[in-house]
Amino acid sequence: MGWEAWFTLAVIAVVFVGLIRGVAPPDMLLLAGMVAVALAGVVTPQELFSGFSNPGMLTVAALFVVAAALRETGGLDRLAGRMFGAARTERNLVLRMVPQVAVLSAFLNNTAVVAMLLSPVSDWCRKHRVSPSRLLLPLSYLSILGGMCTLIGTSTNLVVHGLMLESAQSHTDPEVQHSLAGGISFFELAPLGLACVLLGSAYLLLAGRRMLPDRKDLLEQLGESSREYLTDMLVQPGCPLVGQRIEQAGLRHLPGLFLIEILREGRIIAPVEPDEVLRAGDRLTFTGVVGTIVDLERIPGFVPAADESFEADIPPRGERRYSEAVVSATSPLLGKTIRDGNFRALYNAAVVAVHRGGARLAGRIGDIVLRPGDTLLMQTGAHFAEAHRNNPDFYLVSGVEEARPVRHERALASLLMLGLLIVLMVFHLMPVVVAAFLVAGLMIAIRCISAADARRSIRWDVLLTIAAAFGLGKALLNSGAAGAIGHLVVELTHAWGDWAVLAAIYAVTMVLTGLLTNNASAVLVYPLALAVSSQLEVDPRPFVMAVVFAASASFATPIAYQTNMLVFGPGGYRFTDFMRVGLPLNLILWVLAVLLIPVLWPFGAGSA
To answer: What pTM, to 2 d.p., does this model score?
Structure first.
């Protein structure tokens, strides 16, 4: 290896140490490493930024918008509700994810599956007081396992399929041409892929589950110590809760929220029994945290009801926002009830809930007499916080991020757009990246999400990390470091026979996938697999399949696979979490593949 290879390996080592110790955000560390190899001349400026035009990275960007639109309309909640059902524990949710995520990932791009399910799984974690770090890593791993089952499950399979077709046309050996002709059939990978799904799922449910971190991110920590509000919710005619019992409707054990009483036709029902049947016109009084109060309005026809005229004179649903304000000692509202103070007319805002120190308030929202220091949760227009930030009536005014009323009227449209995306991807009617941008654009055009909210929905840190990983992968290829490592390992195992070389090919691909990306490692090791099979005078197909599965089985590092990068930040993970949970899974599937590949794809004549 030349100095370029040693320099590249040194840069990657420094980046890995930085990731393990958490000295800086992953995107900044990878970008710094990418710039370092460019300054040394290992990669050209075009190669340096090639990751930013990579179709996989661009697809992820578009899918952030699609997922946000589904969330804005409540479509994602409906989809997640059907998928996750009545799961109440972490183990139950993983059991539900195993078949559904694996099947979805087999027929859709697995990156798309994780991008769309990231928010619903995170919401489930918050509602059930489970750390996202307990479930987002299994989500990524299950999507990877499912993608190994069919030709279209992951881009890696398609990349190797294309390489096989190209080799079949250009290779001079007729036996090699015959072996590689036709590439990979649609379900050819299914037997070994299903075995990987079953064994991998068993690992995640048993041993792997014990190694998952239980880590609270900053938002979760804030949520646990957040203010407790009093709020009223009105059951409108046509609401799906009508006719359901309290426990059946899921209102019995809401995280951070307690149902105090029901007001029905002037009669107060308290305490509320779990078998109480809800009726249209019921007014339910809750006390609890902001996040769960906002979640209640995701139910169609279940609206905040601060007073009888709540829905009048406030902005249309799609333009509303939630804001918080602390009542000052000079406010004209002091000593008056919210209703008598005519709050809505004064501020063009509707009080949804009230918090007062450590006290648990009781009674109707409109009947609360305001005091200095009371915190009000309000539905307002988009610019309320800016307009009243310096208003002496309030000590403090701020917006509540990502807490907007759901556009239920657009839910069906957003689900139809999701169906269109699935059809376009499954039947390959157009490239995946084009399909993703088409559906994202249609979501904006039909007003499932605004253009401003679409821009805000994109996780730029995730995209930068993915793009920078491609840059470092290109440096490993250009410097010759990756090729030198691969040849060295194969030379050391050649004397031990076909099975040992097969295990070595798988191991080299697996290690390089952890350093590069799945596609880059597959492209790199594929020629080596053909060369080794030719030297051993055996069928190249088992060695090619070793490359296919090893490049897809990327669990031990976050940069190896895009789905791992998607959950890295939201799950609050550290680099070592992937090593601790993913490395044993890598080794388990390595043994499984080495045992089954020669059975499913025999070495042929001349094998040892």
So the answer is: 0.63
